[in-house]
Every structure is written in structure tokens, then in C-alpha cells.
Design brief:
83 residues; mainly beta; five-stranded antiparallel sheet
């Protein structure tokens, strides 16, 4: 059974990324430009936006939210960890 996350449509508008393939796969951990660590839950190709969930403190839950692809950056791996 495929798990689907239902997210209400509050009049989301298409972005300039509509129809383009995603930069990040589902379950990828990335950073927002504000420095928050989030996990990609889904990419809405028809709108050109990601659905992400924030990594919270233990015992707290933040609802998933939509974010523009320009607001996400990959997490840079620290080379010292690999040595």
C-alpha cells in the first residue's frame, strides 16, 4: 500500500518550476535558506513546489508545508567526517 500525504489546497499558484523535474528526491534532507533542516516529502510537478517537513525538537511536531524550490539548498557534507 502506498502512503499518501494529503495536504489541503489553499489556492496554491503555479511557479516558474511547474512541469520541471525535481532537484531533490523524496526523503532527502535539505536546508532552507533560513537554515532549517527539512525533509522532502513530495514534489508537486504541476505546481513546481515541494512539500517538506521540518525536523523538530523531540516531542514537537510541525505540519508539512509547501516551499519554492529556490528556498532549498543541499546539505554540504563535512569532509572531516569521511576521513
Amino acid at each position: 500500500m502506498i502512503e499518501r500525504i494529503m495536504y489541503p489546497d489553499f489556492g496554491a499558484k503555479k511557479t516558474e518550476y511547474a512541469g520541471q523535474e525535481p532537484k531533490f528526491e523524496n526523503r532527502t534532507e535539505v536546508l532552507t535558506k533560513d537554515g532549517h533542516k527539512v525533509r522532502v516529502l513530495n514534489y508537486y510537478k504541476e505546481l513546481g513546489v515541494y512539500l517538506v517537513a521540518r525536523h523538530d525538537e523531540p516531542g514537537t511536531i510541525s505540519p508539512p508545508y509547501r516551499i519554492h524550490p529556490d528556498e532549498l539548498v543541499p546539505i554540504q557534507k563535512d569532509n572531516s567526517e569521511e576521513e
